[in-house]
Amino acid sequence: MALLLCLVGMTAALAHGCLHCHSKFSEKFSFYRHHVNLKSWWVGDIPVSGALLTDWSDDTMKELHLAIPAEITREKLDQVATAVYQRMDQLYQGKMYFPGYFPNELRNIFREQVHLIQNAIIESRLDCQRHCGIFQYETISCNNCTDSHVACFGYNCESSEQWESAVQGLLNYINNWHKQDVSMRLRSSSFSWPGTHRATPAFLVSPAFRCLEPPHLANLTLDDAAECLKQH
């Protein structure tokens, strides 16, 4: 299996839960919350179901348990949203349900949604192995619904020429990041603005790639980078 190097860092932000970033989320869930009192014969189901819908986004982020940043492509977010809204709409088409049924179905849809989001994010990362060298794709950050991108390094190179080009591309990426980070630190020293220092790309602080950590970047050569990658 090709190795993946995720060159992005995770930043602290308010949790939104991925689906919250979809354009129809507010409209859909506003309808679901306002009609929840019509879905169960038992009055006790109403507050339970309402709480599930209200906490949907925050609970999603808590349940993702991803070791990588929660960033999803717009295409996959649309696919997840379509599947969730379809299940929810079907649930709301029925009349009143027996006690306990409605909140249980909401929980089932919630768990299915979490699974879909996990798979969508991981599948996009694994697609990197189909590439040779640095590859980037556009995403949405589930933490704050802002546009973002993921960069990774794919090892699927079929020739020594492709491998050399891939390592050169990685070297250029690292050097550009290092220069931008130095510039950012210089500006930060003049202006004491919080959060101006960029997060170190994840692979630079990985124990397996100490030869690519910041102290070694200034004098890093193509041969050094290639040798480092071949060792791991």
TrEMBL record:
User: Transmembrane residues, as ranges?
Assistant: none
GO cellular component terms attached to this protein's record: nucleus
Annotated signal peptide: 1-17
Q: Which InterPro entries match?
A: IZUMO, Izumo_fusion
* Keyword vocabulary terms for this entry: Signal
Q: Which family does it belong to?
A: Belongs to the Izumo family.
Protein name in UniProt: IZUMO family member 4
Protein species of origin: Rhinopithecus bieti (Black snub-nosed monkey)
Recorded name of the encoding gene:
IZUMO4
